[in-house]
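Q: I'm writing a short explainer about Nucleic acid dioxygenase ALKBH1 for a general audience and would like to include a description of its predicted shape. Could you first generate the structure from this sequence?
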Amino acid sequence: MMTTKMAASILEHGEDAFKKLFKFYKRRNPPPDFNEVINFSRPCNEKIFTCELNSTPITEEEVSKAGLRPVTDWKAFGLHGYPGFIFISNPFLPGSQQYWVKQCLKIYPQKPNVCNLDMHMSSVETENIWERSIDGIRRKGCGKREPKTLLEKLRWVTLGYHYDWNSKTYSPDHYTPFPKELHSLSHRVAAACGFPGFNAEAGILNYYRSDSSLGIHVDESELDHTRPLLSFSFGQTSVFLLGGTKREDRPTAMFMHSGDIMVMSGPSRLLYHAVPCIVSAPAGNVLPPCLGQRPEAEAQDDDIIQSVSEEDWEVSSWYLQTSRVNVTVRQVLGSGQDFPSAQASHLSSCEKSEEETQKNKKRKSNSGYERDT
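A: Of course. Here's the predicted structure. Afterward I'll give you a sentence or two in plain language.
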């Protein structure tokens, strides 16, 4: 096993320190030592300090409808050296994560949203990924060997303004309505963190299998960087690396557990970050305990959170035994702002040759982990 001393040795060298630490945590043989990874569920690290959130803009009833505990009960932290970074340790009410997991697996991959499978399959074939996968998953749950389902092949989904993985831009011509319930959740979290006017306009969902990782990158394609980047994590635990304004800056490693929320704002909005690995669940604990909780109260008709059927949760929980889903939500445009040169961008895209288009499709279908938090 690679030791903590070896990790410290890696960090002493400024040049390519991020890349070296990424490889350190990504490697499987020998497995890395996670002793230097910050665990916000046990915040006893000198880098961590408690954040005071603002519960004034939103009522307890409003956050409850989105499946969240009262803001005054949230455990929020910052990191010394990372102004504008906020980590909220699982503020979800018991049972409410199940709803968001179901949305990510069953609802959000549906058309007209875009996913990686669209790059090499027809729209008819990807029309209903959930329905085309559940029978195969249920047979696998009974121990039968089956080919990979479409759900297991899912790597990313885009919402709202659909991110173009090739040009790394958003376009007004490539937009579908952003999910209202996810907008409501994001608006409430942003308001509690000091951004009451946050408008959720784009989302990227990344689906991590046990051997997945996310390369070093910075989220800068949005036109307004004064608005925060929100990140919601569900399922298995991951290691998240938060670096600096330069790609080679030394990063800080931390765990993201199911239900955790990260907010990158201010000076931390444009920092490099990455996800080198998904951490295997401890023996005997297939799912994080928080995902096995049932709702404490019946959902009301006007609640955002609605109950999840046993059939849907059977499939969702099987998937999460070896997977993690991450949702990042962004505001693309500032108040009163518009896209520049939209027509020129459209003309440029039309000038691509068929050969280039096919090449890009092939590359994009395999590049689902270029962005995410």
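A: For your explainer, you could say: The two ends are 27 Å apart (CA to CA).
Q: Perfect, that's easy to follow.
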